[in-house]
Predict the structure.
Amino acid sequence: CGGGTPTSAEFEKLDAETIYKLGEYELANSRKGADAVTYFSEVERLYPYSEWAKRALIMQAFAYHKDRDYENSRASAQRYIDTYPAEEDAAYAKYLLALSYYDQIDEVGRDQGLTFQALQALRAVIEEYPDSDYARSAILKFDLAFDHLAAKEMEIGRYYLKRNHYTAAINRFRVVVEDYQTTSHTPEALHRLVESYLSLGLTDEAQTAGAILGHNFRSTVWYEDSFRLLTGKGLQPEVKGDGWLAQIYRQMIRGEWM
Amino acid sequence: QSYAFSNVVVEGNQLIDPATVVKVAGIAQGETVSDAALNDAVQRLTASGLFATVELVPSGSTLVIKVTENPTINVISFEGNKRLKDEDLEKVVKSESRRVYSAAQAEADAAAITEAYTQAGRLAARVEPRIINRGSNRVDLVFEIREGRVTEIERLSFTGNRAYSDRRLRQVLETKQAGLLRNIIQRDTYVADRIEFDKQLLTDFYRSRGYIDFQILSVAREFSRERDAFFLTFNVREGLQYKFNRITTVSEYEGVDAAAYADVVRIRSGATYSPVSIDTTISRMEAIALRQGINFMNIEPRITRNERNQTLDVTFALTKGPRVFVERIDIEGNATTLDRVIRRQFKTVEGDPFNPRAIREGAERTRALGYFETADVEARPGTAADQVIVDVNVEEKPTGSLTFGASYSVSDGVGFRIGLSEDNFLGRGQFVSLNLAAGADTRDSSFTFVEPALLGRDLKFRFTGFYSTSENDNSFYSTKRVGMSPSLEFPVSELGRFEVRYKISDDKVYKVSANSSSLLKADEARGSELTSALGYGYRYDTRIGGIDPNRSFSLRFDQDFAGVGGDIQSITSTGLATYQMKAFREEITLRAELEGGAVVTQGGDSRVIDRFSGNGKVRGFEPNGYGPRDLTVPNQDALGGNFFAAARVEAEFPLGLPEEYGITGGLFADIGSVWGLDNTLGGAIDDSMSLRSSIGVSVFWDTVLGPLRFNFSKALQKEDFDQEQNFDLTVSTQF
Amino acid sequence: CTSIYQNHGYVPREDELAKVVVGESTREAVAETVGRPTSTGLLTGAAWYYVGSRFRQYGVRAPEEIEREVVAISFDEAGLVENVERFGLENGRAVVISRRVTDSNVKGLSFLRQLLGNVGNIDASQVLGEN
């Protein structure tokens, strides 16, 4: 039954199951989910509160998601969670809700606001359905989103470090060390703290930061850098040799900030 | 007593399947259930709104749940609505198709629709919800609407106003008395919250004219019988009009001397009191505090009133405010823009003392970037009592444009044009613009790149490359310029910036028509010559961190020394001074500009492309419309001049049209001249400085494409060989 | 051309610092008289640091720190003030900052996506051929 979606009059004749199957078929085959959405909403309209209507609602959320229409996907998922709280599919709806925030992060990249919402939605899934496979995938995505936040803090910390605002930089790097220890940015944050404290002349604080770095991340390249800094040997050769021309090329053309 | 049911049966449900009913009831199989639990189940079922009637009948070990379902809404429709469209009404109505129909909700929706009509000024509207049965417990919900006539304000009157007449006060209000154009101008319809807004307008009007005690006692509303007309009366108490008397500034912040702040006060004693002048003085004083690096300064205006002679003494007290620091600056909403591009607009660093004025200046600079639809900055309490978190929420807008063009002309064949410009290249705040014009008449291609913060400093690097030819437009000769120019610009003082630049270009004049001036033929004979010039520019602008929002002064002075290699030795200097002020309660903008320039060549004459033309200096003339000309030949081309000077005065004022049209009017008067040639063919060409002047009217119109400016001008003083142009359309870039 | 000065951070004034008594003042007392620190050490119970610096920007050069005052208030295990030290700019070390950055797998806006995003936007200057 190719061609456009049937008009609403034709839908009246079909029963819930056939419309639902049409929707599923449409979802599986077409690249965008928009047509499938019309099928599923018709099922809901004609046969409200039927078993098919329930499944159609969750499929509608998935179709919107596939169509990258995150707002509507969230709305449908939220409607499912409100109307069928005890349903077994509610876990999937919550997961879909979290996914809609999460997928937007990748696309948007820098916006911190979205990352927070993703984290909250993912944590809700992990806490409510700890042993479901949704939780496992949510945990993985939670760590990645968490890493995004840490990256944001680091980006700002380096901005202030580069402009010799050491205390502002220290406060940002301390946030990473205290709130985001599980992320991949902690070793670098500790090294930056060594750099900042040394620049202020607070050698004992620098020593403490270096010790924490050595204790937890001895094998990282960051520890080597800190070790050299603390023992007064200066940085590794490859990091030296940064004339202002190379700096302009790196910053202006390639956009690498440091 | 209690029961234990082995199974539960549902009767009477048509559309809703039993599993859902049991789940909503919340009674599990085999669970011992007391009477109270049964009653809770009933409550839950009725609360769900799904069922008209609910009854639980325990019979032996089975529980029978007898329900009659509420019908579900199949389709919702509206009849009789002309003013408000279906989509607007759908937003207001809460019942939804596919959901359960509830009589109460339908009534609430009807009331909501009536309220929507009241907002639109139709108080006489009536709405009736009606149901059409569609069988198998499904219904259609129809809202029948009778809109009735618009409720207009027949009479708008005031009581207790001695100082200003009813007519004058009516102009102040947004709401208008129903006049002739009543159905075109919507603002004569009665809308409740517009009245609140009017009260505020009236209060501001009186307060800014010295009536410090002005109060609106009440707003009386009477209704005409047919409910289509209104009589509105504002009952006010004006109080006395006060004037400023002694203005003093005193410093209670030790280590701060009040003198610097005192001489920023512009309020003359004897002027009528107005809260606006107090606010501008405070913002001026805040700017001084920021300049002096003084933290936690709080400026309080203490007003003492002497009733006898109705005057006010104002003391601006500089006091030490609470110690508050900026804990964090959080930037959100920047999808493509890098965080640092916004963060570097704020001079305040995290951990610094919190200075509201510095944050406001940062917010203004962020908005001036032009990358954002909105950029609002708020401070909210931080984790500690003396800490504040600054939230910068931006909403981005498209910052680039990409245009393609193809042209075909018999003489020049096919030509293509690609125009790409991006203000926020890759979110790095860099400006890139590339115009490629390939094809027969390669008119002009150019490439511009600007990095506002080279090496992370406040150091703007600009590079422009150009290949432009002008094929006898407004002239009987053609010119070609190929070259490039890098430049660096950096701040040299609080309000001043300095630019150093190098420019190298290969220019030539060619295709000079036979009967043009021999001067031009001499230029053509010189062929293409290389100009290699070092130059500098100084810009002073009080608007960057200016103290006074209503007055601004900007100065530009540039000099280019050609002769660093290349064939041309000359010094080109130009200067532009602009003074702008807002007058008459900031409604009228007055602008005065003075401009001048000189080209001094050593060894050899200046060519027409090196000299100044009259374009854009005195309005009302064609491009190349005035200036020295060789009158002895048929083609009387304008030859430009080694010197030019011009003065322009402009006023811009609202035309009284509603703001949303975005149209304002303007008057302007220009006077100036272009003169001086190295070679006047033995006196044949009059290159004396004869003044040209013109006056004109302009209309500014803010369109979605950008601010357009229509100029209608009339030349007053001109030479008989000048070519006038009475109409001109330009993009009026606000500098 | 003149140079532009900019102050950052905050260091308490002499008379406020005098109120901090070694061996007696607790953290709350210090916070009360002198205010919260600009930054603190890493471990719990670490010292409090107040840093105030003055930057000068001259011409093309980057703003450089010409004055810095660091006041370090350290505490003993009992939480009483152990020592109040002062540092200046000269105690700081010129540290070469490492350029390596941990990859944050946040893809920025690609050139093509931004280019295609602009198709169709016209602004007035192009229409009127303003250059």
Notes: The radius of gyration of chain B is 37 Å.
